[in-house]
């Protein structure tokens, strides 16, 4: 009988890992604290406007991810946004449409906030806020590393000293996303814009992108890392007062509304030396963009790498003895 796997985090890495394990016949349950799946592959509605407010696009530079992108394009989930050697892909109905499709057919439980994970014999127990405790044979932590370590600490789980030291050093940059509705079409290029300097890192008009036809312009502004860190606690009006004047060359007409979204774990400051971490002695894995690299492809590749390692161990349990504290 195949071992059961509990995955905490229904972002890019967690979902692709779960799909791979499910496809190979392994029971898997994914827990997500938010109302929806996808992590930073996120789309938000503000009145009549629709915004991709997290990841703006993704690329497929590796053969594995290029094959997945071709499948998603054939399914009508994504399209090319820009051409070139490495096209930028976007979701036809917003970036969140892609992970929503990944979640279909999986046991994904949203609004399930894990509060602690602990070992009980050779199995894992996951405590969930206002829900019964879940039990599984293996545990994969696909949340931001700081959150994963907090869950282990809450359950009294001790990691090997070298592993804990490595993981503790994986910090994240925040990102402030200002979502601006205009009463006239914007001057933002259809393919988006990355200003070379200033406090704004990225602008994209979601109306021109094709996902927000109900308004004249729905512009996503991403602030640079330094600005986001310095002003993370500021109110929406305070952030807007600082960013809108700088964005004015690309905005037209009047600002109808400006909504702030805070991404605390936007991008890893550094990437782990391996694409994932697997601890065979604990049947515990770590995956995400802090391992496979920033952006959608890095997170997804990390999840796939760990899933393949777990598949090999399931097919040949002796492989666990040869598995190092890494995967790929």
Give an account of the 3D structure:
- This protein has 328 residues and is an alpha/beta fold.
- The chain has two domains: 5-33 and 112-170 and 270-322, FAD/NAD(P)-binding domain, CATH 3.50.50; 45-94 and 172-268, Polyamine Oxidase, Chain A, domain 2 (Alpha-Beta Complex), CATH 3.90.660.
- It contains eleven helices and 17 strands.
- It has helices spanning 12-23, 63-74, 97-103, 145-154, 161-168, 206-209, 225-230, 236-247, 289-292, 295-315, 319-322; strands at 5-8, 28-31, 43-46, 49-52, 78-82, 88-91, 107-109, 114-120, 123-128, 131-136, 138-141, 172-182, 200-205, 217-223, 255-268, 277-279, 284-286.
- The protein has a six-stranded mixed beta sheet, with helices on one face. Strands 13-14-12-15 form a four-stranded antiparallel beta sheet.
- Strand 8 (114-120) and strand 9 form a beta hairpin.
